[in-house]
Amino acid sequence: MPEDGQVKGPASYFPSIEKKYGQPITHWLNLLGTLSGKKHMEMVAWLKTEHGMGHGHANALVAHYLASAK
Questions:
Q1: How far apart are CA 24 and CA 4, in angstroms?
Q2: Is the distance from CB of 61 to CB of 47 less than 8 angstroms?
Q3: Residue 1, pLDDT above cutoff 80
Q4: At what angle do helices 14-21 and 55-68 cross, to 10 degrees?
Q5: What is the pLDDT of residue 18?
Q6: Phi, psi of 29 (to 5 degrees)
Q7: How many helices (H) and strands (E) does the chain have?
Q8: Which DSSP letter does residue 22 get?
Q9: For the chain, how long is the longest CA-to-CA vector?
Q10: Which residues contact 46 (CB under 8 A, 6 or more apart)?
Q11: Which of 25, 53, 58, 61 could cross-link to 44 by cystine, CB 3.0-4.6 Å?
């Protein structure tokens, strides 16, 4: 966590994602784990079409998921 105590990057979206879509972040990360072989934007598009997620929220989840998978 940065010295100023604020969460930055994709994780800064997590509280609003949980509030808006009613599921914990682990739920969404687990779902993304079922999409092996998909590219970043394919995963974003899947969250948007299958789960009605906005682009910014979907992109933040995918970016975090892919960064964590390294």
A1: 25
A2: yes
A3: no
A4: 120
A5: 98
A6: -65, -40
A7: 4, 0
A8: S
A9: 37
A10: 35, 38
A11: 58
Token pair of 47, please?
């969250």
Q: How many CB atoms lie within 10 A of CB 15?
A: 11
How confident is the model over 13-41, as pLDDT tens digits?
Answer: 999 999 999 999 999 999 999 998 999 99
**What does the alpha-carbon distance between residue 37 and residue 24 come to, in Å, rounded to a whole number?**
24
Q: Hey, what are 50's tokens?
A: 């299958």
Backbone angles phi, psi at 53, to 5 degrees: -85, 145
Alpha carbons 43 and 54: distance in angstroms, whole number: 13
Q: Answer yes or no: is pLDDT of 3 > 70.
A: no
